[in-house]
Design a protein that fits this description.
With 170 residues, the chain is an all-alpha fold. It has eight helices and no strands. It has a single domain, classed as Serine Threonine Protein Phosphatase 5, Tetratricopeptide repeat, CATH 1.25.40.10. The longest helix is centred in the C-terminal third of the chain and has 45 residues, at 125-169.
Amino acid sequence: MNTSNDIQRFFDNGRYELMNGDFEKSIESLSEALKLDPNHKLALVSRGSAYLKLDDTDKAVSDFDRVIEIDPNYARAYHLRGIAREQNEEYEGALDDISKAIDIDPEYGAAFYSRATLLTKLKREDEAVEDIQMVQFLTSKNIETFANENNIWRSQQLKLESALETELDR
């Protein structure tokens, strides 16, 4: 039995089940992966996300806390913990976590969006405006980056097709 393969299999199954909305089954699979590797950061984040989907915010926060212990610079764990804290109506803690995610990754558009939503909920719309502007900027930047990368890929593909045509014409 190869433990590394087992961990990967349980993790892959858990992620697949999470993406397909079978949150209970996802938690089971991810828990099996975590029995074999308690520090599997992505399994913890995924299981925390499944708990969050089931509104089990205490278990979600516990998993996100563990991820932050393992990797204090993992922005996504702070963001997700902030969302869980918001669901628990721990608004200041949620705001701190989401802001920490942004401090770690200043181009984390989803965290800016979450913070703007939370600030609006807290009737602090004036502060939310800057975050909404940042979301719009990052969205435009991402679209432009995608377009540029797609253009580079397309030009490389055309070169390859041209080279193949030249070879076939010989």
